């Protein structure tokens, strides 16, 4: 492949002269440090070079591509903290490496020390790709992770497929990521808009009753469109509600008052706000200021913490789903919260947990494969079953690389009960058995993963 | 367009070369050669040939620069865009704030052609460029009715319309916010895989076939732009910039010339936009956004509007700061471990702003202006010695 000869030439000389020595050295550390899976010098010689494989030297580099500026900067910051923590645990042990991931030794990965580079996506697909291609070509990253927007994740995973570098998607919620834009080299832990609809419908049906009318506002771009379509589908089919209207609002709208007053006078009982990030914080705040919550129920399908933080008391009694929360009561969740808190003195957010889990998941797959050779790692992840990241038992489905997992449904707390890191209560963790779709149905029907090599 | 083919023998169009003395010494010879088309194109070709090596692979230099191959390609692509933009801004004096329409429009057009008809790189470039030309003709026809700030606003408005069209109503074609994915770029001439490395010495210098392809078009673009600018036709552009009314009084159809400048500029943007699709095998929705139009204005002014290579230099500096300085974790004093600023890369926007303000303030004719001044200084010295 193109990548291999280019960035190397200077070091290539070194490598060529001492290839035997180096391989032997890598073998020693591999056998000594790893759990034996690496099987010594086998790594590096068994497989042809592909993407950034084989790795030169004894350090493997991960690329963490997160929004460090722009509207999702605070989310990106939290993701990066989790990534740094994951790298620390992979090299030195601690957190889930000691307790949950048997494959990991806490002494690097198959004998390699883990290092990382980080980059700024600025929540912009174009810049994210530039940043990722710098990581791949200049820093020889073996794996890229990140994202806080579906457009960014889709753009970067497409690049990674071309460059034959693995992408472990962090926060991306669009159906398309593992639907029509899915790729072989990317895996998603986060659930999607479709599953959000499935998880919310029974909960709100129970809370508000049957036969209601609902009105939707959605951010006018692909995530908003798939999100509102999924909500319409499940509110109609599962909850037995009827949609009055679904109205598009331009992305980045700051004043929702006209849209909201139309919603208010529509005669609907429920208002669904398919907005995210700052848009979400604005629209819900303005809906509450306009007094809509007094005669209508409000649903925000996808929450995140910065959004809840910004909206404050406006989210009282508002239902939604989220990636993960520190209040979830099981061992992995508690351990992660503790580890994160002792490192950074703050409660981790949902995206942080996904970031941490995805990094360790990748490393564990490398250990099982005994090599960083991407096709082998991919095969280890496909249809892999696990129950160690605090979201119940999961499977990383092979047909579309979408994790089949539980989805937490939450309800916003009143302003007086909110405190840092605690903005909502968990009302239900919808089991994966009630969620998802077959490989030939829903978004997965449009997925063609592409080649391994 | 027929005037374009006229022989560009107007070498004294270059003001500095007219005062340069025709001496028998080397410097005089150089001054004489400097303005010639062959020299300009030749030097451009040499630059294109060694640039990726110096930037990404040369010992010491590339370690210092921290460059990488795909950025070198991207700089040339934006360079073509900037040369075209400068034809309009620097030479004709029209500030378009909607060039993203041509860049992004061509990117989408070539991407859609690749997905549905043919992924041949040449077909992609031709179709993207044709689309940009037609679009420029239409938008120019509508926008050039007004001058000055109204023209800028009109172009901006049209480009934003395109953005919203691509974002939502045409999402079935453009894939909306997610950007156009799944673009399969075919082989050049049916045999050359663009992402592959060029064998032997060519590979060491140029790297990939893609770079060679882009580099070839870049050199051709420089040659064409140089020819246009030094032809009588280009003289009219400058006349319009200097004084539109006088140009009109001389009997020139100013509106028609302005429209042609706009279309030529759109064509360059179209070539660059199509290459951008080939380079990334993807079209981001942001390629139509107004920030992209803003970027090209900043790049052009930063490098020096109204000069042939200034905008290309501006592109290089801008993209370098955006992609490489932004990843610097800590700024240290060279050859030591003393950290001056932690998380230096985080402030890249600020740094770019400071550089821009400083350039506009100190050298209003851009970074290229500095080079011009150094040259004048040297030529005065050389002249003085004689």
From TrEMBL, chain B:
It is a multi-pass membrane protein. Coiled coil: none annotated. One of its GO terms (cellular component) is plasma membrane. The chain crosses the membrane at residues 38-56, 68-88, 123-142, 149-172, 209-229, 259-284, 296-321, 344-363. Keywords: Cell membrane, Membrane, Transmembrane, Transmembrane helix. The keyword Transmembrane helix applies. It is found in: Cell membrane. The keyword Cell membrane applies. GO terms for molecular function: branched-chain amino acid transmembrane transporter activity. PANTHER family: ABC TRANSPORTER ATP-BINDING PROTEIN, HIGH-AFFINITY BRANCHED-CHAIN AMINO ACID TRANSPORT SYSTEM PERMEASE. This is Branched-chain amino acid ABC transporter permease. It comes from Haloferax marinum. The lineage of its organism: Archaea, Methanobacteriati, Methanobacteriota, Stenosarchaea group, Halobacteria.
């Amino acid at each position: 492949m193109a990548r291999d000869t280019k960035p190397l030439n200077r070091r290539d000389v070194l490598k060529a002269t001492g290839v035997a020595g180096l391989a032997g050295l890598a073998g020693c550390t591999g056998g000594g440090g790893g759990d034996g899976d690496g099987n010594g010098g086998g790594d590096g010689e068994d497989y042809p070079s592909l993407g950034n494989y084989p790795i030169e030297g004894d350090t493997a580099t991960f690329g963490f591509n997160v929004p460090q500026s722009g509207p999702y900067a605070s989310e990106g910051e939290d993701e990066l903290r989790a990534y740094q923590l994951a790298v620390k645990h992979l090299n030195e042990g601690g957190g889930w490496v000691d307790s949950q991931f048997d494959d990991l030794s806490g002494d690097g990965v198959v004998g390699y020390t883990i290092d990382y580079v980080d980059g700024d996506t600025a929540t912009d697909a174009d810049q994210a790709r530039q940043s990722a291609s710098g990581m791949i070509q200049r820093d020889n990253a073996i794996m890229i992770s990140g994202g806080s927007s579906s457009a960014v994740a889709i753009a970067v995973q497409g690049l990674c497929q071309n460059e034959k570098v693995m992408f472990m998607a962090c926060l991306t919620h669009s159906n398309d990521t593992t639907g029509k834009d899915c790729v072989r080299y990317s895996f998603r832990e986060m659930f999607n808009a479709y599953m959000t609809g499935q998880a919310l419908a029974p909960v709100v049906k129970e809370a508000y009753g049957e036969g209601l009318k609902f009105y939707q506002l959605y951010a006018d771009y692909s995530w908003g469109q798939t999100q509102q379509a999924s909500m319409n589908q499940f509110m109609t089919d599962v909850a037995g509600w009827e949609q009055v209207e679904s109205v598009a609002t331009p992305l980045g709208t700051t004043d929702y008052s006209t849209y909201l007053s139309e919603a208010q006078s529509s005669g609907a009982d429920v208002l669904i706000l398919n907005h995210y990030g700052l848009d979400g914080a604005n629209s819900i705040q303005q809906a509450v200021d306009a007094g809509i919550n007094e005669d209508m129920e409000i649903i925000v399908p996808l929450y995140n913490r910065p959004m809840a933080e910004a909206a404050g008391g406006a989210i009282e009694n508002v239902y939604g789903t989220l990636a993960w929360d520190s209040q979830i009561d099981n061992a992995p969740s508690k351990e992660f919260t503790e580890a994160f808190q002792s490192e950074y003195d703050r409660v981790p957010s949902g995206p942080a947990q996904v970031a941490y889990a995805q990094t360790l998941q990748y490393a564990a797959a490398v250990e099982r494969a005994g090599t960083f050779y991407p096709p082998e790692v991919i095969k280890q992840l496909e249809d892999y079953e696990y129950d160690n990241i605090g979201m119940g038992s999961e499977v990383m489905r092979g047909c579309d690389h979408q994790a089949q997992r539980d989805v937490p449904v939450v309800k916003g707390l009143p302003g007086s009960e909110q405190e840092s890191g605690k903005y909502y209560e968990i009302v239900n963790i919808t089991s994966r058995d009630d969620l998802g779709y077959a490989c030939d149905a829903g978004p997965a029907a449009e997925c063609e993963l592409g080649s391994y090599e | 367009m027929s005037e374009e083919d006229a022989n560009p023998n107007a070498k004294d169009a270059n003001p500095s070369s007219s005062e340069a003395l025709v001496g028998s010494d080397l410097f005089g010879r150089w001054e004489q050669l400097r303005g010639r088309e062959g020299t300009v194109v030749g030097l451009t070709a040499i630059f294109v040939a060694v640039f990726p090596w110096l930037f990404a692979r040369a010992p010491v230099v590339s370690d210092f620069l921290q460059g990488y191959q795909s950025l070198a390609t991207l700089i040339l692509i934006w360079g073509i865009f900037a040369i075209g933009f400068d034809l309009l801004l620097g030479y004709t004096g029209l500030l378009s704030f909607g060039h993203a329409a041509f860049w992004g429009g061509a990117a989408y057009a070539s991407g859609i052609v690749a997905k549905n008809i043919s992924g041949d790189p040449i077909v992609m470039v031709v179709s993207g460029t044709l689309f940009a030309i037609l679009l420029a003709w239409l938008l120019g026809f509508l926008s050039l009715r007004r001058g000055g700030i109204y023209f800028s606003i009109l172009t901006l408005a049209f480009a934003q319309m395109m953005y919203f069209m691509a974002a939502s109503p045409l999402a079935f074609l453009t894939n909306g916010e997610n950007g156009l994915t799944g673009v399969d770029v075919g082989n050049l001439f049916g045999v050359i895989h663009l992402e592959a490395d060029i064998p032997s010495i060519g590979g060491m210098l140029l790297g990939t076939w893609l770079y060679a392809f882009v580099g070839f078009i870049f050199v051709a673009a420089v040659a064409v732009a140089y020819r246009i600018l030094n032809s009588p036709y280009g003289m009219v552009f400058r006349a319009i910039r200097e004084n539109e009314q006088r140009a009109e009084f001389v009997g020139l159809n100013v509106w028609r010339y302005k429209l042609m400048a706009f279309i030529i500029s759109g064509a360059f943007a179209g070539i660059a936009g199509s290459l951008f699709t080939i380079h990334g095998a993807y079209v981001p929705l942001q390629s139509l956004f107004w920030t992209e139009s803003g970027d090209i204005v900043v790049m052009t002014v930063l490098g020096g509007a109204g000069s042939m290579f200034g905008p290309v230099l501006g592109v290089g500096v801008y993209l370098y700061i955006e992609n490489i300085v932004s990843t610097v974790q800590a700024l240290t004093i060279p050859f030591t471990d003393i950290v001056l600023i932690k998380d230096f890369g985080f402030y890249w926007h600020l740094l770019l702003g400071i550089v821009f303000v400083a350039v506009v303030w100190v050298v209003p004719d851009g970074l290229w202006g500095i080079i011009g001044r150094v040259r004048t200084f040297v030529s005065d010295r050389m002249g003085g010695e004689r």
